[in-house]
Write a structure and sequence with these properties.
Blueprint (H helix, E strand, L loop, with lengths): L9 H22 L7 H21 L7 H14 L1 H10 L2 H14 L6 H25 L2 H6 L7 H27 L3 H31 L5 H41 L6 H15 L4 H13 L9 H4 L7 H7 L2 H9 L8 H7 L20 H16 L10 H11 L6 H14 L31
Pfam families: HD_5
InterPro entries: HD/PDEase_dom, HD_GYP_dom
Protein name: HD domain-containing protein
Length: 459
């Protein structure tokens, strides 16, 4: 969903969205619109719709981010027009305030299934606005606002802003958990913390709009308040374009590897997905999870520096060819050295073939000397390799791969990373790569260290 940052995948997400939509309808019906004039509702609804249209138009860059990144972007997007919604919560009764965001959310562009997404967006914002209005009235905010009692009115206003933040954040986290299967331990805190500061900051602007609205400026107050927000939305659009450029850079690098080594297509995405599962089990911050996701996708970018004849060779590799393969982490690190936004991901790319016992490459690091990202990717890489069918062997069942990871924990892999992956796989399941027609006879690249003749794990 646009505001939640999640995707309505499967029955769980759809049922959750339907429940939230029903709650929003009940909220409006129970609270009622009130006996006041409709003109403030209409004006505020038009302002909200215009602000949402402007933000979405500026932020439309064509590329879609991952759920985790989208969640952070969504918080910023609704924060750009949050003052209008908070002003509605301060000026109107709960039922009337809940109607303000409906038109803008319903008319906004949305990805399929469009009707459900639009209804979800409207319900989420309606419930959050209704809650903010109810809290403001429970704290005697309308009386203090009417008498312009400052700073007393700041208390109810901040409580209303926090109520909006809490309801919107909880609903957004819920859609991620039910639709994506994300870990609740990391989702709740991440979503709420990202939205807390924008809510409080923009809440003061919403209070300013409400005060000016009740004075002689009337509707003109909206223009005075929203003008600087238009500038901020433009700045955010530039940030979105930069993020899209980052995604395009990563995609181009991955496509280059797949063109040269087409038989490992999809491997990088699966390693990235397994790395994210481990990271969430370890309760890494959302920023580190996003960086690790990129590191997993690009961990084999150094294959671009390995001769094509080696990558596509059918049969055992010679000693010289093995040495060439073992250079790919170094090649990969050199290729991404100048890409500043990768940050910690670069070390993961360089050292993902190190071993806990120091027998890995390229630097022979051991134990805690190996960067955390590299220790995560090493487990994810080996797990996907074992469960994927290659030209020289069939993929192992997930249970056998898990057993092998446990056997190699402490010597080849970090036991903490192995345990995290096992917990994540048991909770969320894992779908190994399915061989395509003709893949069984296609040449493939071993992991870089000869596989032992017995049932062992490649390095």
């Amino acid at each position: 969903m646009a505001e939640a940052g999640g995707q309505l995948l499967g029955c769980g997400g759809r049922v959750y969205a339907a429940v939230v939509i029903a709650l929003a309808v009940v909220c409006v019906a129970v609270c009622g619109v009130g006996a006041g004039p409709w003109s403030p509702i209409v004006v505020l609804a038009v302002l909200h719709g215009a602000c949402e249209w402007l933000v979405r138009r500026q932020a439309r860059v064509g590329a879609t981010a991952s759920v985790g990144a989208a969640g952070g972007a969504a918080v910023t997007r609704w924060a750009a027009f949050f003052p209008v919604l908070l002003a509605a919560a301060l000026l109107l009764r709960p039922g009337a305030a809940a109607l303000v965001p409906v038109a803008g959310a319903v008319l906004a562009t949305a990805a399929p299934p469009r009707a459900l997404r639009r209804a979800w967006n409207a319900a989420q914002l309606a419930l959050a606005t209704c809650a903010a209005s109810a809290v403001f009235r429970a704290a005697d905010g309308p009386a203090q606002l009417a008498r312009h009692q400052f700073p007393d009115v700041l208390g109810p206003t901040m409580l209303a802003a926090l109520a909006f933040c809490a309801v919107s954040g909880v609903l957004a986290a819920g859609i991620r958990i039910t639709a994506e299967g994300a870990d609740p331990r990391t989702v709740w805190g991440g979503v709420l913390l990202r939205s807390l500061v924008p809510c409080l900051g923009y809440g003061l602007i919403g209070l300013m709009m409400a005060v000016l609205w009740q004075g002689r400026y009337g509707v003109l107050s909206a223009v005075l308040v929203l003008l600087p927000l238009t500038v901020s939305s433009w700045v955010f659009a530039q940030f979105q374009r930069e993020e899209a450029a980052h995604q395009a850079t990563v995609s181009a690098l991955v496509q280059a590897v797949e063109i040269k080594d087409e038989y490992t297509r999809g491997h990088s995405e699966r390693v990235s997905r397994a790395s994210v599962l481990i990271a969430r089990e370890l309760r890494m911050t959302e920023e580190r999870v996003a960086s690790l996701r990129i590191a997993g996708v690009l961990h084999d970018i150094g294959k671009l520096g390995v001769p094509t004849r080696v990558l596509r060779k059918s049969g055992p590799l010679t000693d010289d060819e093995h040495e060439a393969v073992q250079l790919h982490p170094t090649f990969g690190h050199e290729m991404v050295r100048g890409i500043g936004f990768l940050g910690e991901a670069r070390e993961g790319i360089l050292h993902h073939h190190e071993r806990m016992d120091g027998r890995g490459y390229p630097s022979g690091l051991s134990g805690a000397q190996i960067p955390e990202f590299a220790r995560v990717i090493a487990v994810a890489d080996a797990f996907d390799s074992m469960t994927s069918t290659r030209s020289y062997r069939r993929g192992r069942p997930v249970d056998e791969a898990v057993t092998e990871l446990e056997r190699c924990a402490g010597t080849q892999f970090d036991p903490m990373m192995v345990a995290a992956l096992i917990r994540a796989v048991r909770r969320h399941g894992w779908r190994p790569a399915q061989p395509r027609p003709g893949d069984e006879a296609a040449p493939d690249l071993p992991l870089g260290i000869r596989e032992p003749s017995r049932a062992g794990l490649a390095g």
